[in-house]
Design a protein that fits this description.
Blueprint: H1 2-21, E1 28-30, E2 34-41, E3 47-55, E4 61-68, E5 73-77, E6 87-94, E7 101-113, E8 120-131
Amino acid sequence: MKAKVFFLSLMCLICGSVLAQEAPAADLEFNERVHDFGQINEENGKVTTFFEFTNLTNVPLTLTNVRASCGCTTPQWSKEPIAPGKKGVITVTYNPKGRPGNFNKSITLTYVLAGDTESKTAVVNIRGEVIPAPKPEPAQ
């Protein structure tokens, strides 16, 4: 019985520390966390979406880095601090060339709050399905 109580207490402690690491999400509110492009045609080229977020803190927030999980995804962002209550935008472009099938890519935002030395992170995702370009007919 003591082993069960100990194990249960240990699991609660571990879960609590994992949940505590999720706290930075309260700093930002996104218009969406996952953007689904649906089906896109490879032959139509790159597709772009915008992740808009609001700084929910009472101090300016600066994005120090925005990194995609793959070279096929390119993020762009403003380097200017975002004042409390103001909005920021991350532009994310996905290149489907040579990538038929389903995709799910993450974009990690690293930011710092004014007066803080520790960086925080948030993650957004894009997903969809690339319809392959038609193959050219062989010459006869």
